[in-house]
Amino acid sequence: MFTEVRTREASLVGAFDRGPAPLHAGELAGPWRIEQELGHGGMGTVYAVVHEDIGKRAALKVVHPHALTPWFTAERFLLEARVVNCVDHPGIVDIFETGTLADGRPYLVMERLDGETLAARAQGGITRERACAILLAVCDVMRAAHAAGIVHRDLKLDNVFLLPDVGGGPRVKVLDWGIAKIITGEPTNTFAERLIGTPRYLSPEQARGIEVTTRADIYSLGVMMYEMFLGRAPFGADSTAELLTMHLRDEPPPPRAYWAQCPLVLERLLLDMLAKTPEERPTIEEVAARLAEVRTHLHRHRIAFAPDAPPAPRPVSRTTRTLRTLRAHQRRMLQALALVALFGGVAATARTNDEAPTAVAIARSAAVRALPAPPARAILTAPIAVAVEQIAATSAVPSVDDPHERAPAPIARHRHHARRPAPSPSLPVSAPPALTSPAPVHPVVATTPSMRHAHRVASTLDRDGTIEPYP
Question: How many structural domains comprise the chain?
Fold first, then answer.
């Protein structure tokens, strides 16, 4: 059995590893002029070319001279063009011309791509949600290929090309259909008794060199997914023989061994895709459906647990909202009562009953403005007005004829500065007037510390208008 395997760099192991026969810049391949080399592998080299007549830019893939053998003929090389046109999907590179060089080597002319391979993107770092979007796009391409009876047989990160995003999701191209198998085709479309593919992504049936089905692509895609989500391939060895043996006999390590928070739906999907028996693997449609569930799960996980995401607000119960409202009303009410005490003192300093109503009106207006919004304002306005009038009435003094006594008396601001003057013998001493309209005070206002303070201020006023200091 002759063995052909492709390494990660897509070079052959065996008799064909003798290097490419390059074309130089300026040479012609039919009407296409060579500009530069874009890359090469074990079977051929890809060049950037431009059409001599119309200036169209394209890519030209030409086979190496040593790659043509009795089992890999020019017809086999040109099969890639047939496969691409059978699938007819935008995720496959368009091949629009074939030809032969002067030395007999066949070539393909295809669209030139600007971007990078998935392998290069993965090395630079890629989020798991982004990986889901790219893999879903690959699934869409493979769904079309499998529906057309095409098996790629060499799916890997290097054969997925990423184009610049336009609009929503990523744009991908699945490359290198040169060893694809047409299931309903002729016997020449298969490599009987030959091991082909890349050992890192090889399915067990490919490792045995037996007939393959579309489930072989599922296995290779599972290796790609394992590598993208977990950062490493399920199997690794120093030699190709050891690696093939692991694909044939060893079970892949559970994904949670490398990612402790791996979603269960993703872990089951990866292990199902890497099943040794082809019949136990899901179809490409099932893979796409389950991968969409993984993407939804990862999106929710990122929102809930990402370190840079703000914490989700906790729900507030109806009882908590009510208590917060009551506390806000209580704060506003205390502010109003403090203003009652302040403007009540202003009213208490009025020397005549004519000035007291003005001070009372000012105090009532300021206190009401400090109250909370309705209906609390309607409830508290009446008792506050009564308290203001009561403070003013308690401290009011009768008018006198002496113009000198109408001057406002000084108010002591500190106990050390307060001096109680001796009562004047020329003025009769009279008792303070009684309350004219004793209205009942609301219980809330009567028991408020601010109100008690206001009454204390009023009760310490001397008959001449000064304040008695108190501890």
Answer: 3
